Amino acid sequence: MLSTLDVCPRTDLYVRLGLGAELSTLDRCLRLRRPAEVRLDTYFGCFPATRGRELTTVRSVGSSWTSRGVRADVVLAHPQRAERVVTSVELESEGGRRGDRTDRAALSRIIRPRAGRRDRARGGCVATMPPVTLRSEARRLAAGARRNVASWAQTRSSPGVTARVSDLPLQPELPLPDGVTEDLLLSYLLSLRVDDGTAAELEGYCREDFRRFVYTWGLARDLSGRALELGANPYFTTILLREFTSLDLALANYFTPSRPSTLVQKVIRRKLLGDTLGDEFDEDIESSHFNLEEGRFPFEDDEFDVVFFCEILEHLLHDPVAVLLEIKRVLRPGGRLILTTPNVNRLENVARMVAGVNIYDPYSAYGPYGRHNREYNKDELGRLLARAGFVVESLQTADVHPNRSDAFTDPASIVPLVAPRRHDLGQYLFSRSRNESPATPLKPSWLYRSYPATELGD
After folding, report:
1. In terms of domains, do 211 and 97 share one?
2. Range with the lowest mean pLDDT among 222-226, 235-239, 248-252, 442-446?
3. List of E strands, 213-348
4. Looking at the 3D structure of the chain, how many domains does it have?
5. Which stretch of 10-14, 281-285, 350-354 has the lowest confidence by average pLDDT?
């Protein structure tokens, strides 16, 4: 994210960021080195700063449609003085009303704020960086901006182009074991029953989340060694891993404090015989029973080559970083973490917000751990893993359930706006990371609050 900017006017070099440009890329452009001035006009935001050798912090950035087109407002706060500066920049659209055709020529017209020492509210964004590095970074960012804006303009203005949910890459190809069809694999998992679960509930859950189980298996199909699956019940992913990988699985669950530390559950399922299903058989599945948020896991340091942490992160109540650090403790250096969790930025949530519908999970009869207490987006998950010392090898989003965005709003009204984030809109996040380096000791300030300042970091 953006940090303080060292203001020092030198050469006048403009970097125009298109829709979809990542703030992390912008942040790299603003690393402090030697003075050079940059005006950062973006199509959905302008990041300005006051003139002179002062430090100014970007507090908020917002954008909205106006009678002229797109307006971006930036609020700045000076760290030493109680001073706030609001700067606006508008992007004209042909016809001047939301929904009117916006062509590429209109997209290229930005009303630039005037730069001048006396016009503080309209001053350019000034950063310091070696000029050669700055120019090359500017050219790279500008090239990406042109591609992003051209793509967006094409969607907005080309005749015959329909903005549909199906135009977005929400369902990557489903990985399947060799020689097994999707229908056969679904039938195989539908045959599974657990002794303390109702058949109807298990069937509904399997049909609804089948693709999630298979995507998760796909992240681990080439891995081997000893593995720990946290939150294994009701064992759909467990069965896929046992049947179609060489992993040696240990399992863990948590239900209520009254359960013993070791659980044994009877599972009934059918055998998979080539391209058909065989007779039913039952087996006892043993798992460790403990609350992830209460102390150490009952495993040794570096015990596992792979840890599965699937559909649990969003349920945690107290300290997700502490749980990740425990996972790191039991995972050997170089071991893999497979983590999946709902994507708070999924397209359906965008549609809900546009329609004025709440996106938060309802209270659950299963107690505080039965609901989603905090969901994450793609960027947050990547940052959280990096702080824990993991190197992300794969991180993507995918729809698992039928997409119901059109139940809340007309997709044609939102798909063009979110098209630059087309790869970030799936219902779930699927990640595979490598345990590579020591964790950052401080809690991230974007995720925690009301802790002593000595315990928080950016």
Report:
1. no
2. 442-446
3. 226-230, 248-253, 262-273, 276-289, 304-310, 331-342
4. 2
5. 10-14
Q: Are 338 and 307 in contact (CB under 8 A)?
A: yes
**166 part of a folded domain:** no
Q: Alpha-carbon distance 315 to 319, whole Å?
A: 11
Q: Is residue 302 part of a domain?
A: yes
CA 422 – CA 409 distance, rounded (Å): 18
pLDDT digits (tens, 9 = 90+) for 322-373: 999 999 999 999 999 999 999 999 999 999 999 999 999 999 998 999 999 9
Cβ distance 107 to 147 under 8 Å? Answer: no
DSSP-derived letter for residue 197 is S
Residues 372, 336, single domain; the answer is yes
DSSP classification of residue 302: T
pLDDT tens by residue, 286-333:
999 999 999 899 999 999 999 999 999 999 999 999 999 999 999 999
Asked if 326 and 230 count as a contact pair (C-beta separation under 8 A), the reply is: no
**Token pair for 183:** 């229908």
Domain of 226, CATH number, reads 3.40.50.150
Residue 54, domain extent: 5-157
The 3-state secondary structure of 143-160, one letter per residue: HHHHHHHHHHHHHHHCCC
236 has a pLDDT exceeding 70: yes
Both 231 and 119 in a single domain?
Answer: no
Strands 248-253 and 226-230: parallel
Which string of b and e fits 79-112 if b means at least 16 CB within 10 Å? eeeeeebebebbbbbeeeeeeeebeeebbeebee
Specify the pLDDT at position 69: 37
Chain segment 46-82, per-residue pLDDT in tens? 333 322 323 233 333 333 333 333 333 333 333 343 3
Q: How far apart are the first and last CA of the chain?
A: 9
Q: Which of 282, 270, 267 is nearest to 189 (CA)?
A: 270
Q: Do the domain assignments include residue 174?
A: no
Q: Which residue has the higher pLDDT, 400 or 197?
A: 400
- Is 398 contained in some domain? yes
Q: Are 385 and 433 contacting, i.e. CB atoms less than 8 angstroms apart?
A: yes
Q: What is the C-alpha to C-alpha distance for residues 335 and 391, in angstroms, rounded to an integer?
A: 11
